Amino acid sequence: GLKVTFKNGQSIAADIVILSIGVRPETNLARAAGLTVGPAGGIAVNDYLQTSDESIYAIGDAIEYRHPITGKPWLNYLAGPANRQGRIAADNILGAKIAYEGSIGTSIAKVFDMTVASTGLPGKRLRVEGIDYMSSTIHPSSHAGYYPDAMPMSIKITFDKQTGRLYGGQIVGYDGVDKRIDELALVIKHEGTIYDLMKVEQAYAPPFSSAKDPVALAGYVAEDIIIGKTNPIYWRELRDIEMENKFLLDVRTPDEFALGTLPGAVNIPLDELRDRLTELPKDRMIYTFCAVGLRGYLAYRILTQHGFEKVRNLSGGLKTYRAATAPIIIHEDNGSEIEEMPIQQKGAASAAPIAAAKTIRVDACGLQCPGPILKMKKTMDGLASGERVEITATDPGFPRDAAAWCSSTGNQLVSKEASGGKSVVIIEKGEPKSCNIVTSCEGKGKTFIMFSDDLDKALATFVLANGAAATGQKVTIFFTFWGLNVIKKLHKPKVEKDIFGKMFGMMLPSSSKKLKLSKMSMGGIGGKMMRYIMKEKGIDSLESLRQQALENGVEFIACQMSMDVMGVKQEELLDEVTIGGVATYMERADNANVNLFI
């Protein structure tokens, strides 16, 4: 191990220390010689690599030269371009007039088992330069999936949305990253377009590539965006859209959906979509998504060809969104050592050694989600209790999905390990879980009946609901009578009401902003005071807690009977609210071990 000591005397033990300290050009000699140093901090040179003194040439990390895309001087610390500059400078010293074309910064690195590579300009740099662009993200395999050891790869390219000129590319993967980044670099260097990516003729055989190579596939997807076959939404946009303006359509299989999705998403598998179009709103924007983007694109095409005008598809699918929005967890060092129990000991106190049970080995390498989980399920269905299956997969999300599947089905996750881009998961078949009896140990559902519209009681409800949802428990809130006021929209559309509905509308709070305290209301002053104190102390407002509940997957159900009696229309309630009756509530309550009436 290593110990890092800071200036303030604090020290931290570590296994690895990364020095990310940057690079600066060494220009002292040039400055002493009176040569011009450019705005980027490097020695300024012309097209022939001459400095401000024509008899002096400069090359390598110390020079700055205009970028082929932006036209602005920049510093490029790479060995390949430096060697090329050396050859050009030598020829020019001997009388040649060879102009240097500039570098686009093609780089590659090995990070443990993974390979990361980049060329050209990424989106962040293009935004800084004020260059309008679009991007696409795909997740292909390094070679044909049916040939052993196909490894996952992620490719993002940036391009001009009018001409298709290729600006940049980034690739992360395990195998074949180097040759793909070189192809992208060649196209960018020659001011090529995404159409050139489609025309590149790669050597193909199953061990080395797919008939539709990842580079060509990146070009095809970009072309679909440019010509309007798809309208992408990127993870940043989707993350920042208000929930009430979203209709999230998850077109994966029910098994995939059960393993986790985006909060508030509705699952209609792609194969069922054409038969269930009536379940989708035409007046709201629909955001389609799947695991990696392909099925989401197909869903987009189906919807737009059936008259849906407000549709966008999540670029890169759930795989990109989850990776980009995953929280960064900081583990504080308190000086204590925690030894984690090996995973094979967590499921049962006396787990049998792996070799003691009959084990079926399954190779799911090269399969994209949901391939590995479906192959695992099919194998498990044919096993007897106590037998095991060992699945090897290259899908990075498979270990997490397998653990979630075991948790929900009563099977035991014996072990999981990852190396070289492959995951090996061992699962032992257990007895089916009982679904009819809910105990304090097994049942984790929580249901709330929100009968009151008191501000303090509504706050308590959402605090409890969020706490339960944060532990992974299924939470349902059933809003009835006065509780309907808690979930009214702030800005409601005009709706037709009878005389009684209009009377109730005038007497009842118009939204959650108008709720009063159950005690010390003082004509509404108490509620305003409560909100002020909460804001001063940094406590989330009722509306913020309500939004958090929706994002945590808490189900909101409005009582149909109460709505009819009080003249409340569905259009007045939050978009995420579903309508149900007592039977709907009782079904949720049957699967819960806590029911609270508020």
TL;DR of this structure?
The chain has 598 residues and is an alpha/beta fold.
| Percentage beta strand | 15-25%
The percent of residues in helical segments reads 25-40%
- Name the assembly state: single chain
User: Which value, in Å, is the CA radius of gyration?
Assistant: 30 Å
The secondary-structure class comes to alpha/beta
Strand order of the largest sheet: 6-7-10-9-8
Low-confidence stretches: 334-355, 435-442
Tertiary shape: globular
What's the end-to-end separation, in Å?
55 Å
User: What is the number of E strands?
Assistant: 24
Average pLDDT across residues? 86
Biggest sheet architecture: 5 strands, antiparallel
- Tally of individual helices: 19
What's the structural blueprint in terms of helices and strands?
Elements: E1 2-5, E2 11-14, H1 28-32, E3 43-44, E4 63-66, E5 73-75, H2 79-93, E6 107-111, E7 114-120, H3 123-129, E8 134-138, E9 153-159, E10 166-173, H4 177-189, H5 194-199, H6 214-226, E11 232-233, H7 235-240, E12 247-250, H8 254-258, E13 266-267, E14 286-289, H9 294-304, E15 311-314, H10 317-325, H11 343-346, E16 359-364, H12 371-381, E17 388-393, H13 398-409, E18 412-419, E19 422-428, E20 445-450, H14 455-470, E21 475-479, H15 499-507, H16 525-536, H17 542-551, E22 555-559, H18 560-566, E23 578-580, H19 582-590, E24 592-597
Parallel strand pairs: 3-4, 11-15, 12-13, 12-14, 14-15, 16-17, 20-21, 20-24, 21-22, 22-23
Antiparallel strand pairs: 1-2, 4-5, 6-7, 7-10, 8-9, 9-10, 17-19, 18-19
Helix pairs in contact: 14-17
